[in-house]
Each structure stands twice: as structure tokens, then as C-alpha cells.
Amino acid sequence: MKNNIKIVIGILAASMAFSCTKLDEKVYSSVAAANFFRNEQEVMLNVGRTYSQLRQIMNRWGAGSMSLVTSGECIIPFRETNLWWDNGTWIDLYKHNFNSNNPAIGGGWSFCFDGISICNQVLYQVQSSPVQFAKKESIISEIKILRAFYYYKAIDWFGNIPITTDFKDTKIPPQKTRAEVFQFIEKEINENAAKLDPFTTAENYGRVTQAMAYTMLAKLYLNANAWTGVAKWDEAAKAAEAVISMGHYTLSPDYFSNFAVQNESSNENIFVVPYDKVNTGGWDDGLILHCWSLHFLSSQTFGFIAFTWDGYAGTESLYNSYDKKDKRINTWLEGPQVTASGEPLMLAPGRQLTYRPHVKSLYNLGADVALLDDGVRFKKYEFEKTLKDGESMSNDWVEFRYADVLMIKAEALMRKNGAATAEVLALVNQVRSRAYGGSTNDYTASTLTTDEFLAELGREFAWENHRRQDLIRFNKWNNAWFEKPAGDDHLKLFPIPNWVLDVSPQLKQNSGY
């Protein structure tokens, strides 16, 4: 049952790819939507289109890099042999040199608003269909919550954006303030969450649930002060508690089991984007973290057939924030590298491939150019053997998990009370004790400072598209870090892409751009 949504997404992706490239086809006949959606199965096949768009969440030329490369936890240096220049795209993102022509920022806008448009179309079709079945109203709410998720990403990245909900309305929608968008998302969740299935089951795997909706609401409230200037700590804690009180989700005893090749059985993962090397492959639509990060010689360690690209690496500051006893340090591949049988992997005679925390430079030439093996490499997600070029990993991307819910409630209570209370410590230490295999490294009221809370979030949620929001919330986003200068407040929002402004002249560019 859990593979059903992967298969639906794969079928839809193939049909959509064809329809998007063959725009000159002659239409010999047409079928009205009312006649096509004749039963629940046909309706659900169409609803699958709204989920197919989610696979773009890890497209490196868009949503996959928007939060990651900008967050100080990931670096893509210009490397020896002239690797990873790409017209400065990744250097600009890392240094917060944002501009409205950056292709990754444009891809992030497309991820959000293509998703919103698809949801609006499918919502119109479902509501217009005369077919009736028991879960029709629930499915309508499901689409609205998924649409709210695309808006949740858009409000984070772009702030002041258009709101459109009517597929029949052909007018270009007006721009709304960030506060207005916040209220819209909040209203959509509150009006629709109760109509969803409570939590993840084999039958609804990969789809939105009440637990997903309340987790999103908790994150919305947690960021309310940063996004609207109005703190909502009580509301954040209450929304998180709605998930906790379900009694369904738990912390997995093994942190890394949440990111295994077959991670469908995780009872910690609340909302995932399903991937599969057979049904959801492709360079742009697949999950290809191995290609992003590893040097091609590492294929001899993990058994890949695919060529990997030696790009994305963890930053030295993030890696050095881990205690050596912290099991989560195994998120990173570090040190001299060997084949599966233990033979050294050699970059050249006398030079073994050695992933080191230190990166010489972000962009430099000559003696200071970053080396091919500078930077620790990401291996939180288990690597599947025999992956070929163009094949996706089969791990499902984890967007929300139960550890996040616990930390949201803890942070909200800590901010409200101004200190790490006993309840805050109990919540945070649930997460921390797993990392250490016991309570010997638990926080106390004196050791869980604000800065330490932020550092713990960095270790627990490394490369989970978590850090951007955290740094903004903790007033660290504009700080200088390695090869990145201090920045201004306007950089908390990305610029609206130029091509969007060209077709929507009533939209106003975000301040400072």
C-alpha cells in the first residue's frame, strides 16, 4: 500500500513531462471533467498531481537549494579542476548575494506557485465533479492543506506574495502582505485539519494528515514573530501538543532509521515526500543526494553505478559543533576513504581521497582553491547500492518528524518563560538522549542557553531545510560566517524573480532589491 502514491506520482510525472513539451498537439476530441471523474479512483488519480509537484522540493536548481545553501550548514566551493562554478549561482546563494535572476531562486518560486496552481485546478475539478463518495469532503480539505503547504514555503522565502484560490479567475492576483498570507494559511489549516485522517497509516502514506497539518501550524506560529512581528508562542506550543497528544508518533530508537532506504516504517516521520528509483526517478525529479555531495571515487565505497558530482559539503563550523560521542556526527563522511573491501581510494599517486572538515575557500584560484576532497560529505540518508545514472534514491524525503514537534514546543515554552524550565528540559532531552544513547549528556537549566538550543537544532536537523528559519528566528541570519559577510535585514527574504515581475507588473519587489 505504501508504494501506491509513488506509482501514481511516477505515472503522472511521465504524462506531465510529455504534455509540457508537446505543445503543438492537435486535439481531436475532449472529455468534460464532469464525465471523466466518474468514481473515487479517478478522482484520486487526479489528486495525485498535487503530490507529484512535491518531488521538486529537492530539485537543486530550486527548492532543494533555497534553504540549504544559504543556511551556513552547506557549502559548494569552486574546486580545483574548475568544478562547480555554474556562473556563481552557489557562491551567490552562500554569501547571501541574492539577486532576482538567480536560477535557483526562480526555481523556488516555481515550486511554490506551480504547486498552488495545480492544487487550485484539481480542487476546482473535484468540487465540480458530480461523483459522490464518503471521503470527498476530506479529499477537498486534503488539497487545501497541501496548497497551504506551498504557501507556507512561499511566505518563508518571499514574504509578500499573491494569494489565488479560484482556478476560474484569470485575472493576475494582487500582492498581499506577509501578515495577510500568514492569516490565510492559518485559516486554511484551522478550517480543514479536523477533516483529515489523524495520522500516517499504510493507506494514506505520503499524504497530508491532521498530524502534518498541526505540525505545519506549529511551525507557522513558531515563526510568527519573525514573519509578522506578533509572537504566538502559546499557539505554537498548543499546535505541537495536538500532535504529541495523539500518542501515535514516537522518536525512533535509531536516529538514522528515519532516513533509511526503506524508511516507510518510521514511526517518527510525520510528512514525507515519497521517492523511488523505479517509479520516481530522474535528475530533476529524483532524490539524488549522493550525486550532490560525494566524489565519484566514493562509488567504490557504496557500490554506485551512478557518477557522482563532488559538490555539496558540510561546513566546518557545523561539523565541529558535534561532540565525538554524539551519534549524529555520523551524518557526515569524514577522513581517509576506502573501497568497500578496504583498499585506499586514490585521487593521484600518493594522494588518498580524504574528506576533511576544513574547506580552503569558497571561491579562490591558485594555491587557495578548494580541493576536491575539502568538506565533510552528507550521508544521513542511507545510500542504496547499484544506483545508476538518472535513478532516484528510494528513501522518502522527510519534511516533518516528531523530533521537530518536541523541539517546537520546547522552544515556544522557553521563549514564553524566558528560561529552560523543567518541561523544556524534558522535551529537549528526549531528543538529545537518543543522540548519546543515554542521559549522561542531558541539558540542565544552566547549560541549555539560547545559543545552545540553536546549536542543538543544527545537529538534530542538519540538512533538513530547517536551518534558515532557525537562524532568522534566533537573529543569527545576518551574522558573518566563513566567507560570508554580515548582511542587512532585507536579506531575510529572497527577491521575487525578474521574470515574475515582467508578467505581473502589479507586484512590488521585496525591499532592498
What does this structure look like?
- It is built from 19 helices and 10 strands.
- By secondary structure, it is mainly alpha-helical.
- It has a domain at 289-378.
- The strands form 5 sheets. The protein has a two-stranded antiparallel ribbon. A two-stranded antiparallel ribbon has the order 2-10. A two-stranded antiparallel sheet has the order 4-9.
Defining traits:
mainly alpha; 10 strands; 513 residues; two-stranded antiparallel sheet
How much helicity do the residues have? 40-55%
What is the multimeric organization of the chains shown? single chain
Sheet bearing the most strands, described?
Answer: 2 strands, antiparallel
Structural class: mainly alpha
Binned strand content: 5-15%
Strand line-up of the largest beta sheet: 1-3
Radius of gyration: 23 Å
Tally of strands: 10
One letter per element, helices H and strands E, the order comes to HHHHEHHHHHHHEHHEHEEEEEEEHHHHH
In brief:
With 513 residues, this protein is mainly α. The chain has helices at residues 4-21, 33-36, 40-52, 63-66, 89-94, 103-128, 136-157, 178-192, 210-222, 224-228, 233-244, 289-293, 299-302, 316-320, 402-417, 422-436, 450-460, 467-473, 498-503, and strands at residues 74-75, 269-273, 313-314, 332-333, 335-336, 346-348, 351-352, 354-355, 377-378, 397-401.
